[in-house]
Amino acid sequence: MSKNKTRKNSFYLLLPYLWSKDFDIRLRIVTSLICLVIAKVINIFVPIVYKYIIDGLNKHFALSVIIGIIVAYGGTKILVQIFSELRNIIFSKVGHQATRLVALNVFKYMHNLSMRFHITRKTGGLSRSIERGTKGIEAVLRYSLFNIFPTSVEIILVSGMLWYGYGIWFAVTILITMIVYVGYTCLISTWRISFAREMNQSDNTANNRAIDSLLNFETVKYFGNEEYEAIKFNEALQTYEKSATKTTNSLSILNIGQDVIISLGLVSLMILSANAINQNKMTIGDLIMVNTYLFQLSIPLSILGFAYREIKNALVSMEDMFKLLDIPAEVEDALNAKELIILKGEVSFDNVSFAYSQERPILHNISFTIKSGKTLAVVGSSGAGKSTISRLLFRFYDINSGNITIDGQDIREVTQQSLRKSIGIVPQDMVLFNDTIYYNIAYGNNAASYDEVIAASKNAHIHEFISTLPEGYETQVGERGLKLSGGEKQRIATARTILKNPAIYVFDEATSSLDTKTEKLIQASLKEISAHHTTLIIAHRLSTIIDADEIIVLDNGYIVERGNHKTLLQHKGYYAELWYKQQEEERS
User: Fold this and answer.
1) Is the pTM above the cut of 0.85?
2) Fold assignment, 428-501
3) For residue range 41-63, what is the model confidence (pLDDT) as tens digits?
4) CATH class for the domain made up of 95-324
């Protein structure tokens, strides 16, 4: 698909958001266009009234007549302004609503994309694309509906007036000027589009670099690489600087050509006017009227060029944003997917194999069943595929072969929403919203009462700490939870999951950031709240899973051992070796 066709499609994709099914919106569009046309028609009569003022003064009309014409002149100017502003007032809701709906649709679609997309995406570039795209929509609406269309109408009306009043050559001169001006503007603006796209890409790169560096400022500090980060950011800025310079220079070339074309058109019309006056075919009032028309036309012509440039740039930005909607969703609900019905909460993996890519197989023929109210723990070395099991249970990825069922229902045949509402997780990597502590805990259940939030906090042994803070639960958590320690973030995440009260619990190294004392308290709480729930524990510290009903040991994606803590120690295999090694490390 060509780039021009893609940009045209971007405009067509916008139309349903504008011409919606809402009668009020459609009425606003029609009414605003009527106001626009009325304003332009009245504007055509402004120079005519001005002509009669001049001619009236030359012919010594009565003062009362002159004053009447002057009042009419002022009235037409006021009416033009009134109808123009009415147009803006009436249409403002249409434009802002369309922008909001597009942004909302893109936002929702981003959340429907797969885990793979969100892991590999660059947040800064993505947010910049959406931001520029929504601003592009505003620009397209502003300039296409309220500049190009009315300017075209005004040029046609003025040409017709001059043709009717002073001959065809006046109209021909204006039309030729307009055609050459628009043609030149389109040609140069099309050439400039590549510079605008290059500038957008380099802007995304620089923004990604800045965000990535600032989010990882602690790592930068650890390695003393502030200067290195500045050098890398400067390199990205230099690339942007070069593309921005090309854009600015090409704009100057465009402006020079436009000014030359307008000036030649003005000179031609003035020569025609001077010749008509010499032949007594025009009065001084006619001359001033033509001059007024010329100036009146020069403004929309210059706006036409600017509007064209802005629309072209806006369509590039809209193109980038709408391309996001073309990204396929890797994991989708099956046709006629049903709600997951939790009966007992029994989880079963049956010969499950999975690979993130063909070159990277992770799990091989994994099978296990977690009975209702029972606990299964997964242990193994880093990279063995432990956390992948929890991601597959949430259906962040689809498996390559085998089946995952909950109470006999294949998770690929139920809605993702109902599946994920039934499972609660305390993940290894704690990421909190840049909001209050209360918001972060209540996020587990938006309908929970204040007392329920407090109870969950107490069960997670975080209430006492929160109470010591000056603002308590209203304390703001920094971006990604950076104002809290790892243990504090982990306990908040635990409280959030407790508040959710799911049928199935997943603890992915849920106490890895806690001290020994707090770990024991949390373990006791987790054991209590999950006593009658199906529980999957992904653990590094084996001391946290000794009470698990079953433990499976992963190595390179295969289950190499399984049993409870006692039987695995008696087996004297990989698990026993890992257990005694950790015990020795804790003693030392």
Assistant:
1) no
2) Rossmann fold (3.40.50)
3) 898 888 888 888 888 888 777 88
4) mainly alpha
